[in-house]
Structure prediction request, 590 residues.
Amino acid sequence: MTSFVWMKVLESAPQRYDRGIRMLSAGRIAGVYERIADLVAAPGKRILDVGCGTGGVTLACAARGATAIGIDVDAGMLEVAKSRPVPDSGSAEFVQLSAAEIEDRFPAGSLDAVVSCLAMSEMSSEEQDYVLRVVHSRLVAGGALVVADETAPEGVMANLAYRLRRLPVAATTYLLTQTTTRPLHGLGPRVQKAGFSIVSTEPMWSGSFLIVHAVKVAP
Amino acid sequence: MRITDLPGYLRDRAFGMLPHRAPTGLIRIGNPDRHSPVLVTGNFTLTVRRLRDALAGCDVWLLVVNSKGIDVWCAAGGGHLTHHDIISALRTSRVAEHVDHREAILPQLCATGVERPPITEATGFTTLWGPARLEDLPGFLDRGAQPVKSDRFMRFPVWERMEMAALLGVPMLMVVLPVLAAVSGWAAMTAGGAAIGLTVLGLFVLLPWLPIRGRRRFVLVAVFAAGAALLGCGLLFVLGAATSSRLTAVSVASLAGIAIASIDLAGFTPWYGSSINTFHNQAHIELVAERCTAVADCVAVCPRDVLDMDERRHRVQINKPDWCIQCGACIVQCPTDALRFRYDDGSVVEAPTIRRTRMNMLGRRSVEVRD
Prediction:
């Protein structure tokens, strides 16, 4: 059973996504997009943005001269992404594709870097491991992986404080924008298990956000 | 339902407008073997729990797909459950390692947003439509995955209407009750809460006999709102707490509550399409007869029995246009794009647009084409 009321809520979410994420991050998300692009993007680099949403990271990479492709399953998000101007310095393409379909479109060794911001936490744990394995096979040797996502502090008290601090912001954001995020667990070990070597981990915002930069270890 | 499931059930029903995520992946129901059927569903907690109950005694594989914690129908209609999600689940769950066959049974209600051919192309799994309602699954499986016509039709029995009343009424009361308590005290809160709650319940229980579409719905709302106000005032007298300020507060709250609850009453049912975004520009299903090749996938996915096969002319016909809820499932599934929406203003939305946007119930996306 269902209610069509959800339709009314969901239909306008893509247009509100950027506003919602800005609210949740207190305006700091734009800096994250730029930081991710700084880590991997350069002229001519072939970059895949997994779960590109409204295209913030994809376009930041294109602005640095990269050939960026953003994939997402959400048609509404992609429409917003496609409506945004692409910088002249690079290129940006947006394709409706799930992370589990990367292997169908991108041959082995066809990507210089893969980035993903606030998308891994939307996937199930099986999907996360599967995607990391597939991405590893699609990158060139030494290719870069950057995963940026919300995380929860590990300690019990720190975690409780984090949840209490987050609750009012998340509830308000959801009411206003129908957008929310979920914390990701065990990102570093998952990335290593998939065959990557971690270059750096940058915790941000009191440990509630993490940027993991890794490279594909040559076999 | 087990007693331990009760808290989750109450949460899912009262706050069903929010997503509630169940774990995704492959679940064993009973003792499935390599020949057992694979059923696909979304990861709304209530759906998964009810499926476990409905399938007790069956031996099946249940593949829970990431529908973002939203029920299958809404998720598919809103673009949150697509063939991409099903491909992802089939691959990442490694279901192919558990079964010898390559067939997955999809819930009929995901037909609004899930295209079947890409699933087969990407995974090798062919798909077929299961029944619209999960309680029909055991019978469907007993018949060897053969649907009967009643499996396709979306019923809306009284207990589900009462659940829908809770879905609408509980969040409303969570807002109204503290306001009434703060403004006029506990007696007003009790009387107003009871009046609004019972009236919303009454609206849904009596739904099959009420005119909730067309201009007569305004009369209906006025009658129920006035009834709620009178009920609230009567309760205040019974409680011996009737003062002019409390009577005013309860009346205003009751009138407002029922008015808000009735903004899109039709959209809360599986029987009528939502009109909140289309207002006076309603969408109507339209068949482009020369494109129809009588595949009849549209007939198989319509939850309202709007379409049927005209065997004599060997093509589909729109038999009950007034029953259409504009869910768009028939349009998405037609392999020859023979169905589309036409709006009162003459604009049409063709199948590729419906498939691309998935926002097919709201009628916001109209694309002009020349006939």
Q: What stands out?
A: DSSP finds 14 helices and ten strands in chain B.
